[in-house]
Amino acid sequence: MVATVNVNGLRAAARKGFTEWLAGTKADVVCLQETRAELSQLPAEVADPEGWHVVLEPAAARGRAGVALYSRGVPDAVRTGFGSAEFAASGRYVEADFGAVSVASLYLPSGQVGTPLQEEKERFMAEFLPYLVRRRAEVEAQGRELVVCGDWNIAHREADLKNWRANRKNSGFLPEERRWLSRVYEEAGYVDVVRSLHPGQEGPYTWWSYRGRAFDNDAGWRIDLHVATPGLAARAEEARVERALRHDARWSDHAPVTVVYAD
């Protein structure tokens, strides 16, 4: 079982309920994004929780980005980054091997139309797709599988966000971003695991703005994904978004996305 969630600041999330969620999850591996902390800044119950091995990859720019992997067992190997010189210290990708499966935590840049942030996102995508192609070939040549979990910051189809008409010119739902994600599935050959288990439905959404009543109205986006090699995707038995019952019970503006994979 693998879970992923953008915590929107790990220290804040820990104060609001992440620690209790971690203690109760049945996941074997938990992927975190936007941790925005160094290991030394975290309380002991987050930096070294009982029963978990922690790999934290912070960004060189303090207080930004950051990804992590929490696992029940010690990884066989850990890799940070994806071979990009520009994004080597950006805290946006960490990957670990657990037996015949590699699990990665990805925080793809969010972007903002008409600003350098969108240009950064485009550069990231341009370098990351070839990595995905190469990495799939490597793991499958070894008889292994890969799942890249995380905040991909792109809603692929109209069913993946509530107010799609109003967002057609906004980062996260731009035609060129959606085409890029199609290439991940069609050219690189990965599978959107949650969509494969929940075809033809709206959502399930994973992120809701803190502004207005987005959460109460379920006006969300499905941008937190499990993107897996076909062999592992075929073993997915159940996928669920762990949406909080109430707005005031949230410990992030994202919800955990948990998938059960058969052994």
TrEMBL record:
<feature type="active site" description="Proton acceptor">
    <location>
        <position position="254"/>
    </location>
</feature>
<feature type="active site" description="Proton donor/acceptor">
    <location>
        <position position="151"/>
    </location>
</feature>
<dbReference type="InterPro" id="IPR037493">
    <property type="entry name" value="ExoIII-like"/>
</dbReference>
<comment type="similarity">
    <text>Belongs to the DNA repair enzymes AP/ExoA family.</text>
</comment>
<dbReference type="GO" id="GO:0008311">
    <property type="term" value="F:double-stranded DNA 3'-5' DNA exonuclease activity"/>
</dbReference>
<dbReference type="InterPro" id="IPR005135">
    <property type="entry name" value="Endo/exonuclease/phosphatase"/>
</dbReference>
<dbReference type="GO" id="GO:0006281">
    <property type="term" value="P:DNA repair"/>
</dbReference>
<feature type="binding site">
    <location>
        <position position="6"/>
    </location>
    <ligand>
        <name>Mg(2+)</name>
    </ligand>
</feature>
<feature type="binding site">
    <location>
        <position position="153"/>
    </location>
    <ligand>
        <name>Mg(2+)</name>
    </ligand>
</feature>
<feature type="binding site">
    <location>
        <position position="34"/>
    </location>
    <ligand>
        <name>Mg(2+)</name>
    </ligand>
</feature>
<feature type="binding site">
    <location>
        <position position="254"/>
    </location>
    <ligand>
        <name>Mg(2+)</name>
    </ligand>
</feature>
<protein>
    <submittedName>
        <fullName>Exodeoxyribonuclease III</fullName>
    </submittedName>
</protein>
<feature type="binding site">
    <location>
        <position position="151"/>
    </location>
    <ligand>
        <name>Mg(2+)</name>
    </ligand>
</feature>
<keyword id="KW-0460">Magnesium</keyword>
<feature type="site" description="Transition state stabilizer">
    <location>
        <position position="153"/>
    </location>
</feature>
<dbReference type="InterPro" id="IPR036691">
    <property type="entry name" value="Endo/exonu/phosph_ase_sf"/>
</dbReference>
<feature type="active site">
    <location>
        <position position="107"/>
    </location>
</feature>
<feature type="site" description="Interaction with DNA substrate">
    <location>
        <position position="254"/>
    </location>
</feature>
<feature type="domain" description="Endonuclease/exonuclease/phosphatase">
    <location>
        <begin position="3"/>
        <end position="254"/>
    </location>
</feature>
<dbReference type="GO" id="GO:0046872">
    <property type="term" value="F:metal ion binding"/>
</dbReference>
<keyword id="KW-0378">Hydrolase</keyword>
<feature type="binding site">
    <location>
        <position position="253"/>
    </location>
    <ligand>
        <name>Mg(2+)</name>
    </ligand>
</feature>
<feature type="site" description="Important for catalytic activity">
    <location>
        <position position="224"/>
    </location>
</feature>
<keyword id="KW-0464">Manganese</keyword>
<dbReference type="Pfam" id="PF03372">
    <property type="entry name" value="Exo_endo_phos"/>
</dbReference>
<keyword id="KW-0479">Metal-binding</keyword>
<dbReference type="InterPro" id="IPR004808">
    <property type="entry name" value="AP_endonuc_1"/>
</dbReference>
